[in-house]
Design brief:
With 73 residues, the chain is an all-alpha fold. It has helices at 2-15, 22-41. The chain has 2 helices and no strands. Helix 1 packs across helix 2 (22-41). The relative contact order is 0.19.
């Protein structure tokens, strides 16, 4: 079961273009984990989706508006 959860998190990250930003990797893994727990175990976790990144200016490789978690100012 843990491998399936890990696979779901990695698949979500791959959909976003790979691990370019650690914030993006964490946000996508949390989203995938919440979704996996709901689908596989019926566990509903409170989640405010989609998260919005506050670290755009701190990450030199930020994809900006191309990132699923980009927050325009």
């Amino acid at each position: 079961m843990s491998l399936k959860g890990t696979a779901a998190a990695l698949a979500r990250l791959a959909e976003l273009g790979g691990p370019r930003c650690c914030k993006q990797a964490v946000y996508s893994a949390i989203e995938a984990g919440v979704d996996y727990l709901r689908k596989e175990l019926g566990i509903i976790l409170p989640a405010s989706l989609p998260p919005q990144c506050k670290f755009t200016e701190a990450v030199p490789d930020c994809k900006g508006a191309s990132c699923a978690y980009y927050r325009a100012k």
